[in-house]
Amino acid sequence: MKTQITKVSIFQNAKFLAVVYMPISLIYALIGLAFIATGSDYLRVTGIIFILAPIWLTAMMYVMVAILAAFYNFVASKIGGVEFELTEMKE
What residue numbers bound the domain in which 38 lies? Predict the structure, then answer.
């Protein structure tokens, strides 16, 4: 059976992927703590940026996914969406 994705939920997908990405971005915060511990002024500033990374990376992920989902919906409405085949399996 052929199936086509004609529309994706913009805000639900953006919210979901931002929440999934947040724990991954916590790695940057740990790197930031290591930079601050070194004591160098340059690395302290960089460390603060890395510590704030979970906030700004999550926000950027939300915005970018929302933009891409809106773009997908626009293109899918004009030329059709992603098409794939599904096969039912026997238990």
Answer: 14-80
Tell me how many domains the chain contains: 1
Q: Is residue 3 part of a domain?
A: no
Q: Provide the whole-model pTM.
A: 0.78
Residue 19 lies in a domain: yes
Domain assignment present for 6:
no
- The answer to whether residue 89 scores a pLDDT higher than 90 is no
pLDDT in tens, 46-64: 899 999 999 999 999 999 9
User: What DSSP string runs through 48-89?
Assistant: HHHHTHHHHHHHHHHHHHHHHHHHHHHHHHHH--EEEE----
CB 2 within 8 A of CB 80: no
∠ at Cα 17 (45, 1), nearest 5°? 155
